[in-house]
Amino acid sequence: MALDEFKGRRCLITGAASGIGCATALAAGREGATLFLTDLDDAKLDDVAASVRDYGGSVAYMRALDISAYEAVRAMAEEIHHDHGSLDVVMNIAGISTWGTVDKLEHHHWQRIVDVNLMGPIHVIECFIPPMIAAGRGGHLVNVSSAAGLFGLPWHAAYSATKFGLRGISEVLRFDLRRHGIGVSLVCPGGVDTPLVDTVENVGIDRDVAAQESLRFVRELAAAPSERRVR
Ligand SMILES: NC(=O)c1ccc[n+]([C@@H]2O[C@H](COP(=O)([O-])OP(=O)(O)OC[C@H]3O[C@@H](n4cnc5c(N)ncnc54)[C@H](O)[C@@H]3O)[C@@H](O)[C@H]2O)c1
Fold first, then answer.
1. How confident is the model at residue 211 (pLDDT cuts 50, 70, 90)?
2. Active site residue 159
3. Residue nearest to atom 28 of ligand 1 (CA)
């Protein structure tokens, strides 16, 4: 959906405290969306909400939670639906990154990234899309996957497992939700210069090599999170 379609729309953004989620919240707020913001990071979420309100934007709700925790997402959804009704736009942006070779990745690495990057968006879809369907006003679902959800890259097995999965869900929901007037957008960024670059968990990769590779990637290719660039 285009930015000028956000005016007056109730819009949930996960991962709103940083990077792409923060830039999206600021942009949607400027276009007149009523924002519902969530992230793990309470303090940074407060800062983003304050920035939106500083320019006269509307933040109707914010809540710090872990999207991998289904009960927490369900409680947030019940609170939002009770107080504000169903939403118009739902954006799954929160995510983490783990790089590693399969001989070094441990079970907890696989489990955590699946819990956050795949089950997190599923929890949000489960809790927010049925009420959107029931309201009968249409709407839009945005899922942020990755270029690593389109093709394989070294060290990205765990990350790609989640991002290919989110792409699969999105491609199916595009068909399933069309008859309800709900659009589905899949976003597959390449390199975006966000704090994620510094928080990538490297498992069994020489830290210097990994750091040099990611920095080279960012310096040569990455866009700023607020930049609109379509290739
Ligand atoms: N930066 C890139 O180059 C790039 C490339 C492709 C895809 N992506 C994807 O874009 C999305 C946003 O990434 P970003 O680059 O803005 O990163 P970021 O680290 O700047 O922002 C991610 C946000 O998600 C939040 N988050 C992490 N785990 C969470 C959890 N369990 N529950 C709730 N919130 C949680 C973090 O607190 C953070 O605020 C991610 O899904 C990422 O995989 C990023």
1. low
2. yes
3. 95
